[in-house]
Write the C-alpha cells for this entry.
Amino acid sequence: MAKKSLRKTLVGKAPKSTASTKKPSVKKALTKAAQGKAAHKKPVAKQKKADAEAFAGIAKRWTAAQIDEAFRRFQAQEPEPKGELKHTNPFTLLVAVVLSAQATDAGVNKATPALFALADTPQKMVALGEDRIRDLIKTIGLFRTKAKNVFLLAKKLVEEFGGEVPKTRDELVTLPGAGRKTANVVLNMAFGQPTMAVDTHIFRIGNRTGLAPGKDPLAVELELEKVIPAKYMLHAHHWLILHGRYICLARKPQCEKCIIADLCQWPGKTANTPP
C-alpha cells in the first residue's frame, strides 16, 4: 500500500480496498506505530538545516509558562530521576564522572566495579597506584590520561582536603581531570545542590528547542539556571540529560515519543502533539 494510503488508513480514512489486502497493511502499520516508527520523518538535510538555524539562535524562545509546563511533565513522568553512573560515595562518584569524559556511562560502569572494590576512598586509590589504576580502566577511552588524573586527584584530596571530596565548585575544579561539568554533577548528586551540568545532550536541547540557546556550554548553563523555576532545579539536569539521551537524539530525534513536542520550537520537529 502506498505511504499516502497508509497514513489515511491510520487516521480512519482508508481508500476503498478489499479486506484481504487491507488487514495485513493495517497490522504492519500499527506494529510500526507501537515501535515509534510511524511518524513521517523530515529529510535529514532539512533536519540538519533546522539544527543549524536553532544553534544560530533563530529558534523562538519559550515563555515562562511553557517552561514551567515542560518541567511539570518531566516531574510527572519521573519524579526522582537518577544518574546512570554507578558509585557508592562522593569519592567514587567523582572518579566515575572524571572517567566518563568522552566515554559512555555504560562503558564506565563496566570498568569501575573492579576498581572501586579495591579503592573506594582517596587513600586506597593512592595506595593502589597509577599503574594498577590504568590496568583496571583500560577498556575506557583515554585510559592512560584518566588513570593519571584519578591518581593525582586522589593524592590531592588526601594532601589538601583531608581525604574528603570538597563541597564547592571552586575547590572541585582544582582537582586533576575535574572541570565545571564534573563539579556540577558531584555537587548535585552527592551533596544535593541545584546545579546544572551541561553535557552534549543538554547543550543540544537548550539550542535545538529554544529553551536556553547559548554559544557554549557555560552560556546554556547560565541561561537554564535563569529560566528554570527553582522548584525544579534539583532534578532539572537529570531530566534534560535523559531526554537528550533517549528522546531528543542528535541524529534521529524521536519527536513522536516526546512529551514536550507541542512546546518545542525546533523547526525540524516531526510531531506537534505529545504522546
Q: What stands out?
A: The two ends are 26 Å apart (CA to CA). The mean pLDDT is 86. The chain has 14 helices and no strands. The CA atoms of residues 83 and 189 lie 8 Å apart.
